[in-house]
């Protein structure tokens, strides 16, 4: 990723006997080589065939041969581009070079280079250089919006998505200033964006950084993703401001279970929604492959250690290849951690050999689980190793859903390939019988993990229904991990939108969880500072917090949620909404409340929420109608966000990383959740002692708490008080870089209901149209 | 996939108040719409801005506006393209249309359409039509080869791969006559090819169809894939014949275990080899997701049926949505199979409801397994459902490696999206307590499977080290499945190479298994007929068959394999090689023996093999040096294949599908393997009775036998005789469409050794270069 400064002009000067094909092959290599900024074609005239000339990319054409070929340059352009002062400068330069001029040295095969030709060449060098230099700079956007004509009643998500033709993704990429070599298309509507962009635009100031969080939701969800998409549609298609949405990639499992897709909804969607919801560019599949390679390595290693002597293990781990025994780099890293400086395999003492070959993993202390991107409840607890080939080494373990993998959290927090590789290597998979943490690097697998993840680290570019750019990247769990999209997608987007642009990113769950982790974990990792928090509320959730009856998926909504009820709304606003605004203010960031309007909401209810939100300290509060009307329905929100982003933000962390683990947990519990105090189980206390001893005490905290209440009790709505937060256990994701206290039991594997979504999902084999996704 | 004949010319005629953006949006939609072959722009002159004019694709430009815009058409082309007879014809046509002319009807906003303009328009209609018609036809190749300069000693595979710059895949696609809309790039070096190609080129005669099979191999493998790649490099880069390699996608698991990659080797490789060996375009990941969705559906369904009444199940499976209960199409398919014609959910009798809602799967008779693309031996036998949420419904089951999934076999045999969907739906996952087969469609999951597999069905285009095209598609197991690359890749390639071109495809294992299945299963499914079989042999394997000592992975080769030993070679040729040639002749196809030369082979050994092969009936036999020298080292083989392909081929199946199951198995055992007879276990006999009863008797047979011997005993080399083939058990892949008798135990999950390949695999985070893949 190191920056390359300067200009690299290469000459092609092949022997006379080269065939046309061989020349073209050379040209194509140079066309593709990003290190070469321009090419001279110094060839015998007979070799300068039109095929050769047409092969060289115009932007690399220093000689202007492709222009000369069609005769335009000589006849038309001399009077305009090639001014007398420039011509003089070029002549002077040429004269100064004298015999040393590369043009004269290598031009011997040509028919004679007169001053005009030489000058033309120099002009082309200058043009080529300035083209290159411009290429390194920021390019203003020329975003073309897609027209939206919302229908009423609003059709199904897949129908809306299918009715809109997305721009070709290479066109979108060009519109937002990406260079051709910075994207890798995956089909016509998705492209991965290379991280080299960060290097090219490193001097470019970032845009405004907007976080979308929510109040404590009902189990049905309150539409944060649609708010993100609607807001970006409004900012880009209606206010004509550069803006980018950064979304999490959804797990594919729930798409076929109960939840359905996650590409937004109604007229605020990422399109094509089926591409968004299925496979995408394979990142989650790569995570699954990497995660399960670690798991296979763990069990196989325990078996091999249990059935082999030190000597046998050593002769296999460090085999003689053509008579030479050598440690691999990954093995040398393990030797270093063991304090063994010897790198000649023959020179290790038997004790050193033993400590090198035996990870001595305690089967009862393996914390690494297998994963699968399917809602498969029967894998929640399993016994493995029951075939006779595994010689009785059975073990109880479990599968989690793929997005619960620590590798997903790493993908979301890494700020480059090197950082990702380091984090993958330091992942702790369990501990030895003597209590030492065992890492992925100890297993020898960390290089392979980086290889498996090399493409997953590039964010995927897609677009909204109105043609605004979207990055989809990473989707870690919001309880056992931090629940935010990736640091890298946000960073790339902030450079691309430019100083006056907006990047809107999303945090999972309610603000007490997703936003708190966004600030304390993600912003700490990235160094980025948010300008505005958009807090999403719904009348439905506010009524629930105000004392409305239970809301649950699959049951019809009680009357209170359909009819106007200002009293419930008032109580909801003065409890949960007010508290969540206060939480954002703890971090010093202005808040705009976005009321996601449902068709059953009355004007009086809407007005009441907006008024009370502002009374509670929100910089502004506006209703949004993006679901029914697209970006046009979120223009007020966009204006409010733009206004709030010009206010000063005084961002601060809730705690310093130097604060002891227990104190960090207590601060979150008291200041964010409103608990009186915390209560540690003996297991939790023992783990804290262990983590402190291992040097993990400075890691930030990632609370694994229900999102359905500010407290640990899902049924406590509003602003619960007078409770003590129980810390049942504590775990650590050392690679991702956080410690996660468990408050209650977290399910890491969803199940399938009696009638999963898949009953309605179908594909027409003739039209290739998908039905039933939502 | 139905063909579209005729020309669809669309007009854009928008209201005056349309903005430029709105017009461009319309144009872009029509640009992208494959159903529209040409576009008229009937717009007010003020709207015909250069942005609008430049947006319309030239090939869709019926008005020639983009030409008019740059002024070339009027000034330059009239005298050439627009002959007086054509002008007259156009005038006549216009006159006949009179007031009904669409041009006059919609041209009211324009400044007046004179005869010249009208004529120009018509000329452009004609041009546009003929462009379209040409687009539907075969396009001759203009393949550019990549120059290869082999080094000695031969560097590592990854070094060779990295040293060559592949052509951009869109360029390769264009060179071999693919239209832009027929490819979907996945990065710069891989592209999926759409099946619509088959429709466009349906009238185009197929090229020659060459199968590469092998003699019975040593456990080290004899290099069939490198022969395929070397042969295609020779045919295309050296003989300048259109040719295509069709390869199987390797499982990713073994890449990190013992085997390493499968992109060929030395100077006969698919590049970039790391892309070939990792993720590729996600097909195996899609198979994993689809396979495991079925598995999750099975266990969840058994749990739901076990814990709910008929009524509860019915009300959940056919819920009331806004007061209406309705069966989904997948449920109606199940009703049909049950013989229930009623489609009003309220009208079913209680008995009908019960038989509809209860699959009544017998847990002991579930045959569907979960899969993972990782070598994870601890998943060979597991117990699932041990969490308390699964209420004691534990069950023993297993994971297989992903490529062992029946869905992989279906991908390889399907001849279109519709066929794949049908096969996915009819997959049998187990049987009910009353012995009825239960299908994926009964589970309601078949539509979702087709959706998950919609992109996997498109073959992936890559290239060899010398720039020849390669399809990588599907990679079913060669024992429990048929071990061949996909029917669709072969079909696409046969159309693309054209009548005089060559498609070289590969069968797994030795010819007794892979080739027999290629003929009896794959050719039966595809209707394709092979022209030549290339039979790969090595001196090493021949010596083994001649009585040489044991060869095993990880141990040094005994001296017999390094020193010249004509006696062992002779015995090997007269046993295994001769027999495998005879097997190919059973099917009426000429054989060319390709001796894959190793550096320890002597000239006398090489000559001996070639001589004896020809004596055994091979049309030709030649040594190949592709590993060390690339295509140039396989030119002799290419010439021999070209020669043999001009011989008549009298292809015939070994058995008719009407032959009873037992007889089919016996014919394979006796005629192909050389067994005296077969011996059925009682389980096998019972299964045959069951399959006959279920109507599966006409399916072809897919033997699951060791590949290390013609017999069932891996240690029996050469041409074993005097043995009886034991059929231990019989299983069926009803979706894929074959019955597979088990001869011995087949491992469907590899393990990791003490020091897996991953110890050496690494990624440089700065250069992004991968090391350690081979």
From TrEMBL, chains A, B:
InterPro entries associated with the record: Aminoacid_DH-like_N_sf, Formate_THF_ligase, Formate_THF_ligase_CS, P-loop_NTPase, THF_DH/CycHdrlase, THF_DH/CycHdrlase_cat_dom
Q: Which Gene3D superfamilies match?
A: 1.10.8.770, Formyltetrahydrofolate synthetase, domain 3, Leucine Dehydrogenase, chain A, domain 1, P-loop containing nucleotide triphosphate hydrolases
GO molecular function, a single term: formate-tetrahydrofolate ligase activity
Q: Which residues form the Tetrahydrofolate dehydrogenase/cyclohydrolase catalytic domain?
A: 3-63
What is the E.C. number?
6.3.4.3
**Pfam families documented for this protein:** FTHFS, THF_DHG_CYH
Q: Which domain of life is it from?
A: Eukaryota
GO-annotated cellular components:
cytosol
Q: Name one GO biological process term.
A: tetrahydrofolate interconversion
Q: Which UniProt keywords apply?
A: ATP-binding, Ligase, Nucleotide-binding, One-carbon metabolism
> Family assignment?
In the N-terminal section; belongs to the tetrahydrofolate dehydrogenase/cyclohydrolase family.
What protein name applies here?
Answer: formate--tetrahydrofolate ligase
Originating organism: Salmo trutta
Quaternary structure note: Homodimer.
Q: What class of enzyme is it?
A: ligase
- Which pathway does the record list? One-carbon metabolism; tetrahydrofolate interconversion
């Amino acid at each position: 990723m190191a920056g390359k400064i300067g200009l690299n002009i290469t000459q092609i000067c092949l022997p006379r006997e080269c065939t046309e094909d061989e020349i073209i092959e050379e040209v194509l290599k140079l066309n593709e080589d990003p290190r070469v900024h321009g090419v001279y074609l110094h060839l015998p005239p007979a070799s300068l065939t039109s095929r050769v000339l047409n092969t060289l990319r115009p932007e690399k054409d220093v000689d202007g041969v492709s222009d000369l070929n069609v005769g335009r340059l000589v006849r038309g352009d001399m009077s305009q581009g090639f001014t007398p002062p420039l011509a003089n400068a070029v002549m002077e330069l040429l004269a100064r070079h004298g015999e040393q001029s590369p043009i004269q040295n290598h031009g011997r095969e040509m028919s004679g280079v007169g001053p005009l030709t030489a000058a033309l060449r120099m002009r082309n060098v200058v043009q080529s250089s300035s083209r290159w230099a411009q290429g390194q700079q920021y390019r203003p956007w020329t975003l073309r919006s897609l027209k939206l004509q919302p229908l009423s009643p609003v059709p199904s998500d897949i129908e809306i998505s299918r009715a809109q033709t997305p721009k070709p993704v290479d066109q979108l990429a060009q519109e937002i200033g990406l260079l051709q070599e910075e994207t890798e298309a995956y089909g016509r509507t998705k492209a991965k964006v290379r991280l080299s962009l960060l290097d090219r635009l490193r001097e470019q100031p970032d845009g405004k950084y907007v976080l979308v969080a929510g109040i404590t939701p009902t189990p049905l969800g309150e539409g944060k993703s649609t708010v993100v998409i609607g807001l970006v549609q409004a900012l880009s298609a209606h206010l004509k401001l550069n803006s980018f949405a950064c979304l999490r990639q959804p797990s594919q499992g729930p798409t076929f279970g109960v939840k359905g897709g996650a590409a937004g909804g109604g007229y605020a969607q990422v399109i094509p929604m089926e591409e968004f919801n299925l496979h995408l560019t394979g990142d989650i599949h790569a995570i699954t492959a990497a995660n399960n390679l670690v798991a296979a390595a763990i069990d196989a290693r325990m078996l091999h250690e249990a059935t082999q002597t030190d000597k046998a293990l050593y002769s296999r781990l460090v085999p003689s290849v053509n008579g030479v025994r050598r440690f691999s780099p990954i093995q040398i890293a393990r030797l270093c951690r063991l304090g063994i400086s010897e790198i000649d395999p023959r020179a290790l003492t038997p004790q050193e050999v033993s400590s090198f070959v035996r990870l001595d993993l305690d089967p009862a202390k393996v914390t690494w689980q297998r994963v699968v991107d399917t809602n498969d409840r029967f894998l929640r607890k399993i016994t493995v190793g029951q075939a006779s080939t595994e010689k009785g080494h059975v073990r109880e373990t479990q599968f989690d859903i793929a997005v619960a993998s620590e590798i997903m959290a790493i993908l979301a927090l890494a700020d480059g390939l090197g950082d990702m590789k380091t984090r993958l290597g330091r992942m702790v998979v369990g501990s030895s019988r003597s209590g030492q943490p065992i890492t992925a690097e100890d297993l020898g697998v960390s290089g392979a993990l980086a290889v498996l993840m090399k493409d997953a680290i590039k964010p995927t570019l897609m677009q909204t229904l109105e043609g605004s750019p979207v990055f989809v990247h990473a989707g870690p769990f919001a309880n056992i991990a931090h629940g935010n999209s990736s640091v890298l997608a946000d960073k790339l987007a902030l450079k691309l939108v430019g100083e006056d642009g907006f990047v809107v990113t999303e945090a999972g769950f309610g603000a007490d969880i997703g936003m708190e982790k966004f600030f304390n974990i993600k912003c700490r990792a990235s160094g980025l500072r948010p300008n505005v928090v958009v807090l999403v509320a719904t009348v439905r959730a506010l009524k629930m917090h105000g004392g409305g009856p239970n809301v649950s998926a699959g049951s019809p909504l009680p009357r209170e949620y359909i009819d106007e009820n200002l009293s419930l709304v008032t109580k909801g606003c003065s409890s949960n909404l007010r508290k969540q605004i206060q939480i954002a203010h703890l971090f010093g960031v202005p808040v705009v409340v976005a009321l996601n309007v449902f068709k059953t909401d009355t004007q009086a209810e809407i007005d009441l929420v907006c008024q009370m939100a502002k009374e509670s300290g929100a910089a502004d509060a506006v209703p949004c109608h993006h679901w029914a009307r697209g970006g046009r329905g979120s223009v007020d929100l966009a204006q409010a966000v733009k206004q709030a982003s010009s206010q000063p933000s005084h961002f601060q962390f809730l705690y310093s990383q130097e604060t002891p683990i227990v104190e960090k947990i207590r601060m979150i519990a008291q200041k964010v959740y409103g608990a009186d105090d915390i209560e540690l189980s003996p297991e939790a206390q023992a783990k804290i002692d262990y983590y402190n001893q291992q040097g993990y005490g400075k890691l930030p905290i990632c609370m694994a708490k229900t999102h359905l209440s500010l407290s640990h009790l899902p049924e406590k709505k509003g602003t619960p008080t007078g409770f003590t937060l129980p810390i049942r256990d504590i775990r650590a994701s050392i690679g991702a870089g956080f410690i996660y206290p468990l408050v209650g039991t977290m399910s890491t594997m969803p199940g399938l209901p009696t009638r999963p979504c898949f009953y309605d999902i179908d594909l027409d084999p003739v039209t290739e149209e998908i039905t039933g996704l939502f």
